[in-house]
Amino acid sequence: MLALSFPADKFEKFIWGMPAITNNRLKKLKIKLMRFQLALEYLPGKLMTIADLLSRQTLQDPVEDEQEIIEYVREVTKYISLSSDFKMDLRRETGWPDEKQNVQIKAKQYWQVRHELFMEDNLIIKTDRIVIPESLRQEVLLKLHVAHLGIVKTKAKARQSVHWPEMSNGMSNMVQGCRACERHNAANHYDPLTPHDIPDWPYQKVGADILDWEGKPYLVVVDYLSKWIEVRKLPRKSSKSVNDSSLSIFTTYGIPETLFGDNNPLNSRVS
Q: Integrase catalytic domain spans which residues (predicted)?
């Protein structure tokens, strides 16, 4: 049952359909497919051994983009939530040279995927996100983290509109180094200490513990009212030694109503 439940839950949108699609490209693809009644069937890659000849034959002459693609690109740049002034900064800082040797060293990491990028209105777009140059990344990080969201939510917010290499690492470092987030982080809040009730008279409530000093055990008893400390040297760590020393202290100051200890194990068989 687990083998059936897990994939059904993971691919729920594909089983029932995706009625709420926010991506403009997916919306258009869904509209195109509405006039068809499709029956999808999975075919393993080992069964697809023959490649299509036409797909291997590339075109030598440049092909102009379809008007529908141009309109889609315009829609992408239109609805990305960036101010007009910031878009002007992007247009000034972005742009591809004609040859690889003219590419800046820090921008060469884009060269292998340059065909996945396209230019619209002097902005470099990757899928439905604007590529941010290095000179403006810090400003974008600050804008994304202005609400002091966590790492996961900040990354999710960024993936809706912007892109650059190692963007996730930059966001993680910024959120982890934010002083405001660190100060208000739930992990840095500690429960207050619960104090003991103050007793009404001396030796009504006492605490006891075993102290080791220079290899020798001592019994330490503290009064919770006066903070008076009594120390008795023990011949050995045994219940009898602790009882005898406690009896000597309680005979002098009185028998307490409450005694606190730390559950220190004692060898009761040692006489």
A: 191-271
Q: Are 122 and 153 in contact (CB under 8 A)?
A: no
Q: Are 205 and 254 in contact (CB under 8 A)?
A: no
Rounded Cα distance between 35 and 38, Å, is: 9
| Cα 231 to Cα 246: distance, rounded to the nearest angstrom | 10
Over the stretch 231-256, which tens digit does the pLDDT of each residue have?
Answer: 999 888 888 888 888 888 888 888 88
Spatial neighbors of 168 by CB under 8 A, at least 6 apart, are 155
pLDDT at 168: 84
Q: Which residue has the tokens 């917010």?
A: 157
pTM of the complete model: 0.36
Which pLDDT score, from 0 to 100, does residue 271 have? 43
Three-state DSSP at 87 gives helix
End-to-end CA distance of the chain: 63
Q: Which amino acid is at 124?
A: I
Six-digit token string for 137: 């990344």
pLDDT for 205: 92
- Greatest CA span in the chain, whole angstroms? 107
- Please give the distance of CA 80 from its chain centroid, rounded to a whole number: 25
Residue-wise pLDDT tens digits, 94-140: 666 667 777 777 767 777 666 677 777 778 777 778 888 888 888 88
Contacts 24+ apart (CB under 8 A), 201-205: 201/225, 202/226, 202/228, 202/253, 202/254, 203/250, 203/253, 203/254, 203/255, 203/256, 204/256, 204/257, 204/258, 205/256, 205/257, 205/258, 205/259, 205/260
Q: Please, what is the average pLDDT of the chain? A: 76
